[in-house]
Write a structure and sequence with these properties.
With 512 residues, the chain is α/β, with parallel strands linked by helices. It is built from 15 helices and 17 strands. It folds into 2 domains: 105 residues, no CATH class; 325 residues, Rossmann fold. The chain has a 7-stranded parallel sheet, sandwiched between helices. The chain has a 4-stranded antiparallel sheet with strand order 2-3-1-4. The protein has a two-stranded antiparallel sheet with strand order 9-11. The chain is globular. This is Subtilase family protein.
């Protein structure tokens, strides 16, 4: 979709008075380029009188995403933001997206609501049942108990016998060939990775880690270490836990991981967090990002309307830019148990009353996706249990799901841990089920592929991951609770279907 034209400004005095200095080390080169381009830019126009915000009319200070025309310089973007009574946290000139804070009530109107949106404000405005709150179970939901960690508290017992998931994808056999290359870096965009866990200490690269909870990368350890959620540590262990005869072993224990924190202490992944994480991965030359989340404030984000388009466009640009920089992306299909090809029946915000009109329904079918899993250039992963059947909670959809991987499935009436995936958490190991667990299996296999094919592009790696997968046909019967009714309908055929995509990822095939 073509981005709406943006009026540029002559008056730069507001920059000196109101704009926070943009100075991240990873973007300094891009800033210099942007400033050089400014010299050849045509003089900018004054805003219309009614576009000026009243800075005296203040409310809650909110964080906004602002999407500009591609090619807009940092200088021009910051000037317009300042004129609207905003303060620039960071501007990514490569994709013309800014993260801004403002307490001006009229900020979004001054910039244009088709270009500025606050997911944080959306959550505040509808605290009870609005789109800012999760409507489905999600593993990123924090415990709200402070995370404390220490290597001395972790048992050294070998628990690899409990890793049915690794045997299911041939990981143990693959390790006899290779465990992956240290040149391969996996960015774990999540809630943070425990740097003291003995199974992760050697794999974690602190120099490549950063926190993104302001929308601007912060490389200090306090910004990327976990605070209230073990989710990121669990995901990282599935990818790269050490093969040392203790604890558990990851799919690719020879690769490095970076902690890129995009999940806040309330369990939200606002779009500016994701944009920051993706841009950081590109800046640091990572090989692949693992995205075991969906972007808030909605399960489905539509490339239509004003607010939705801002989020969709910003995340899409970040994904595309990182892909172009050589970064592959793997993402969870989510635990909504929904058909991702039919978003109108799943999204609770369609007409603010939860029911879509016929026009909205037709429009949303073709323009709404779970982000980032539904975007081009992202490998979407569904979850299977030990029986290689789509887990009941896993979302699905023909043409959306690319591959399947072990996410686990709790057996009714059995031990609640039975059938789930064992991995690392601060101070030890725990079981968890979800597409969040399936995704790092696929990421780990892709990391093994990248180790064997160091010059392959993200597209080539994704294609190899899919073509080497083990075909899983649609089940003849998908009545999970014995009620006599199908719990979901699988479309497609053996080599490619809505439940499993191209099939179950195969670690042994990747290294061979």
């Amino acid at each position: 979709m073509e981005v709406l034209a943006v009026p540029l400004l002559r008056r730069m005095r507001a920059v000196l008075a109101c704009v926070a200095v943009f100075g991240s080390a990873i973007l300094s080169g891009h800033v210099a380029q942007a400033q050089t381009r400014t010299q050849t830019h045509a003089p900018v126009a004054d805003p219309a009188p009614d576009a000026r915000a009243d800075c005296a009319d203040t409310g809650d200070e909110l964080r906004y995403l602002v999407v500009f025309d591609r090619g807009t310089t940092q200088q021009a973007a910051e000037a317009e933001i300042a004129q609207a009574c905003g303060r620039t946290t960071v501007y990514y000139p490569q994709i013309a997206v800014a993260v801004v804070t403002s307490d001006a009530v009229a900020f979004a109107d001054a910039i244009g609501r088709e270009r500025a949106f606050s997911a944080e404000g959306e959550a505040i405005s509808r605290p009870d049942d609005g789109p800012g709150r999760r409507r489905i179970a999600d593993e990123t939901t924090p415990t709200h108990a402070p995370i404390t960690s220490g290597a001395e508290a972790v048992s050294e017992a070998d628990r690899t016998d409990e890793q049915w998931n690794m045997r299911l994808i041939g990981a143990e056999k693959a390790h006899a060939v290779t465990e992956g290359s240290r040149d391969v870096v996996v960015g774990v965009l999540d809630s943070g990775i425990d740097p003291k866990h003995p199974d992760l200490a050697k794999a974690l690269d602190p120099a490549l880690s950063a926190g993104c909870l302001t929308g601007r990368p912060d490389p200090s350890p306090r910004a990327w270490e976990p605070t209230s959620s073990a989710h990121g540590t669990h995901v990282a262990g599935i990818i790269a836990a050490a093969d040392d005869g203790k604890g558990v072993t990851g799919v690719a224990p020879g690769v490095r991981v970076a902690s890129v924190k995009v999940v806040d202490d309330s369990g939200f992944i606002y779009p500016e967090y994701a944009v920051c994480g993706l841009m950081w991965a590109a800046a640091k030359g990572m090989t692949v990002t693992n995205n075991s989340y969906f972007v808030d404030p909605w399960l489905f984000t539509c490339d239509t309307g004003r607010r939705e388009h801002v989020v969709y466009e910003a995340v899409r640009r970040a994904v595309d830019y990182a892909s172009g920089a050589g970064v592959a992306h793997v993402a969870a299909a989510t635990n909504s148990a929904s058909d991702l090809t039919k978003p109108r029946a799943q999204n609770g915000k369609l007409d603010r009353g939860g029911v879509a009109s016929s026009n909205q329904a037709r429009q949303m079918d073709s323009s709404c996706d779970v982000l980032p899993a539904g975007l081009r250039g992202v490998t979407a992963v569904s979850a299977v249990g030990p029986n290689k059947l789509k887990a009941g909670y896993s979302a699905y959809g023909l043409g959306v799901v690319d591959v399947a991987a072990p996410g686990g499935e709790r057996a009714e009436g059995a031990d609640p841990e039975a059938g789930c995936v064992l991995s690392t958490v601060p101070n030890g190991y725990e079981y968890s089920c979800g597409t969040s667990m399936a995704t790092p299996h696929a990421t780990g296999v892709l990391a093994l592929l990248a180790s064997a094919k160091p010059h392959a592009s993200p597209t080539q790696l994704a294609r190899s991951l899919a073509t080497q997968a083990e075909s899983l046909p649609c089940p003849t019967d998908y009545d999970l609770n014995g009620s006599g009714t199908q719990d979901a309908y699988c479309s497609g055929y053996g080599p490619f279907n809505g439940f499993h995509g191209h099939g179950l990822v195969d670690a042994l095939a990747a290294v061979n």
